[in-house]
Amino acid sequence: MEQEASDIAFMQRALELARRAEQDGEVPVGALVVLDNEIIGEGWNHPIGAADPTAHAEIAALRAAASKLGNYRLIGSTLYVTLEPCPMCAGAIVLARVARVVFGAADTLAGASGTVFDLLRSLRLNHRAEVQGGVLGDECSRLLKSFFQTKRNL
Length: 154
Known about the structure:
Elements: H1 5-23, E1 30-35, E2 38-44, H2 47-50, H3 57-69, E3 78-83, H4 87-96, E4 100-105, E5 130-132, H5 137-153
Parallel strand pairs: 3-4, 4-5
Antiparallel strand pairs: 1-2, 1-3
Helix pairs in contact: 3-4
GO molecular function: tRNA-specific adenosine-34 deaminase activity; zinc ion binding
Enzyme class: hydrolase
Protein name: tRNA-specific adenosine deaminase
């Protein structure tokens, strides 16, 4: 699968955000929302630091984008995230009406974009998003594997 240059560039920014989470001792996941080729929201995992189970990278990026637009509906936007969204984040993506989701690493435990569940394309919901996985997938996977290997060795 050929990856668009813009998808790679935005995923590289998501990886930078993931590294920020890692510096804080959080699971390294970064996300951003793009509309008309402009980043309108960014976020990284911080549930430990925020003492908030909903403080996932995607939720932070969606909140920032909605705040910037003054609208919870992010019609026509693309969300880039280094790890496949979980069911909670997929639900928020559907509610925000995000048009497209691009993720790096598949989540074989809780992925809700086609790996374990497929909430983003469910015909039972009132909105569906286009999904593309595997963009810089090896790099995203390596970052996560390295983080957890380090945690296990402590």
